[in-house]
Amino acid sequence: MKTYELVDEAWLTAGPDAVWEALLGELSGAARWWVPDNTFEPVDGAPDRVGALTRITVHTKGVDKGGKKLRFTARTTAVQRAERLALEYVEGAFRGTAEFTLTRLEDGGTRLVMFFRASPQGQLAFLARLVDVGAMHTRATRAAFGRLNQLLSTGTPAASGAGGAR
């Protein structure tokens, strides 16, 4: 079975507290910067509470554009405010872990890193033999981080989502 070990990062102009609040907002369903690729819905509490479940939907063609929707559920396993949020994928299209780390930069900005270690399940395991799911994940994550940087810099999400992600 294929396992993805991906690292995506961005250097954001906002400080860790603002990035943390935006991350928690998105995982709580705000749909401000990970859309059109992903949406999030809390199942049983805030995502910064250990044990909380969050339902994730990957919209392969974008929200409301048709296409396959990949659904999975993450359980929060560790929280260090404005520094680290760790998740375990416990059901659905992926099994594995994700971790977000936030590091304050000398200029007051934040280095945001997402570590994604997961294996596709069910129909996605078959699809992963035909499509580069890892590349799709990285593209969507980097675009989302770019939109986050734009949102935190100007208050308005960028349409292209390219700024700041690496």
Automatic annotation (TrEMBL):
InterPro entries: START-like_dom_sf
Protein's UniProt name: SRPBCC family protein
UniProt lineage: Bacteria, Bacillati, Actinomycetota, Actinomycetes, Kitasatosporales
